[in-house]
Design brief:
24 strands; eleven-stranded mixed β-sheet; alpha/beta
Length: 514
């Protein structure tokens, strides 16, 4: 291809060379750059990749997109004046936006060949995207998925470091989906991906906004809630049709600058039934019943509005009713053939690490959840109380090298809401587990909660199960789908679900009740 064929929508100034330069690839990692690449420079908060220009020129790169003048770096490359004159330089305002647009062009704009559904919000993105994908697949629509649990195409799952991958990897995934015959793609759209311009140039067919609460605010994230909200709501000006949770306290702010055709959904409380029809959401859920049977823990509820149906949901919790309603609402917007598959999917749906019931017996229920902050933890524990357990036992820790406020608030929440907290390791990173647990312990004690300290996470999970009382509900939280523990920069395999299953199997072999 010629460079000029890749510049659709990109604002640039040609600072040297020719737009007829031959190009084959886009790169932004200097260690992988090679001849035929367009190397995109970005000035980040920690690394300015402009300083690697001499290195990539020596590797054979002859097309560079840069945010500033690079004469000094060009001169340091060792290339002759004539060779430097043959280098094509595009001056761009924002390297990250340039990377997104060039990556889309390099893969032939694959997102345009899919029905693209973007889901954003503070909570519920992962569960809702999985629900939507399961509904589409049940309706015979081959669907790819991108989110916290990885990139899913058919039976293959590829792990990702970010909820929304870097723009190059994102368009590469779309291209693989198209090649695999996918008609639809469902993806989580994180606020960081908007801020870091990973989704620039992408226009979604449908956008879904679950909710928003203060989160991801701090160094290397968002400077304040206003910025966080602004990044989240940008989805609603980058899609054709939008579906928004009308019950969110920030609803008016969320839809304020929306340019798409808007639909709403809401889980109605009993006091909401007398609303005027003009204020009614397009999709509403009501009459929620919490069901705990020998082989089923979940909810039943009714959906009314643009869709009318009874739903039996195989994942516990009020907030999962919201997620399910959002998915059903999206199915309603997608069409009758998709909607007809929704009811059957909801009863059997399971989402890895999200209110995932790993074991259920008359003696105990053991589940895994990704709740790793106080807001998610309180919502989880309040939900589990609805099932009237004899004891609510919570096994958790906190990640190291993160704000200490998170561990203090989680300790306080656990102390107030659980009957027993078993404090244990999470991803300690470069902190000592004992120091993290001591911080949590103080908050649990402050809330007058009962607790135990078992630093080894495997031992803590096993203890909770081996010492369960009849009717206990045990929540192992914080890591969810994660299949590793990170200590001093090293990740080793660890999956909560596997440890639970191994413990149950050991009890069976020992002939002990489980």
């Amino acid at each position: 291809m010629k460079l000029k064929d890749w510049l659709d929508g990109l604002e640039y100034e040609l600072a040297g060379g020719s737009l007829d330069a031959e190009v084959r690839e886009v790169s932004y990692d200097s260690r992988k750059a090679k001849a035929g690449d367009v190397f995109v420079c970005m000035a980040g908060s920690r690394v300015d990749s402009h300083r690697f220009i001499p290195q990539v020129l020596k590797a054979g790169v002859r097309v560079i997109a840069a945010e500033r003048d690079i004469e000094e770096e060009m001169a340091a490359s060792g290339l002759s004046e004539e060779e430097r004159g043959a280098v094509t330089v595009l001056r761009v305002k924002d390297g990250r936006r340039a990377l997104a647009l060039l990556s889309a062009a390099r893969f032939g704009y694959p997102a345009r060949k899919l029905v693209l559904i973007g889901v954003t919000g503070t909570k519920g993105k992962t569960t809702t995207t999985h629900m939507i994908r399961e509904i589409l697949e049940a309706a015979g629509k081959k669907t790819g998925l991108i989110g916290t649990t990885g990139i899913v195409i058919g039976e293959e799952t590829t792990p990702t470091q970010n909820t929304t991958p870097e723009s190059y990897e994102l368009h590469q995934a779309f291209a693989k989906m198209v090649e695999a015959g996918c008609e639809y793609a469902v993806m989580e759209v994180s606020s960081q991906s908007v801020k870091m311009r990973r989704v620039d140039g992408i226009y979604f067919d449908f956008g879904l906004f679950t909710n928003i609460t203060p989160d991801h605010i701090g160094p290397d994230e968002h400077k304040d809630f206003a910025e966080y909200l602004a990044c989240k709501t940008r989805l609603l000006s980058s899609c054709r049709q939008g579906l928004v949770n009308r019950g969110d306290s920030h609803f008016e702010e969320i839809v304020k600058n929306a340019t798409c055709k808007l639909y709403t959904y809401e889980v109605l409380k009993e006091t909401d039934t007398g609303r005027m029809s003009g204020e009614h959401p397009d999709f509403c859920a009501s009459h929620i019943a919490y069901v705990s049977a020998p082989k089923f823990v979940g909810t039943e509820f009714y959906v009314n509005g643009m869709v009318n149906m009874k739903v039996r949901l195989g994942i516990p919790g009020y907030f999962n009713v919201e997620n399910a309603l959002a998915a059903i609402g999206m199915a309603g917007l997608l069409g009758v053939d998709v909607l007809s598959a929704a009811a059957g999917v909801m009863e059997r749906i399971r989402v890895n690490g999200r209110m995932e019931i790993v074991y259920k017996s008359p003696r105990m229920t053991v589940l895994v959840d990704y709740a790793h902050n106080a807001v998610s933890m309180e919502s989880l524990l309040a939900t589990l109380r609805q099932y009237s357990p004899k004891r609510l036992v919570c096994v958790f820790g906190c990640g190291g090298n993160r704000s200490k406020d998170r561990r203090y608030s989680m300790g306080e929440s656990g102390g107030r809401m659980a009957d027993l907290c078993i404090l244990t390791a999470d991803n300690s990173r470069y902190e000592k587990v004992e120091d993290i647990l001591e911080d949590i312990r103080k908050s649990v004690e402050k809330a007058h909660g009962a607790y135990m300290l078992i630093p080894d996470r495997r031992e803590a999970i096993a203890y909770s199960i081996r010492n369960a009382e009849e009717g206990d509900m045990i929540a192992v939280i914080g890591k969810g789908h994660e299949d590793y523990q990170e200590v001093n920069g090293v990740r080793t395999h660890f999956l909560d679900r596997e440890v639970i299953e191994e413990t149950i199997e050991a009890l069976r072999k020992e002939g002990k009740p489980c």
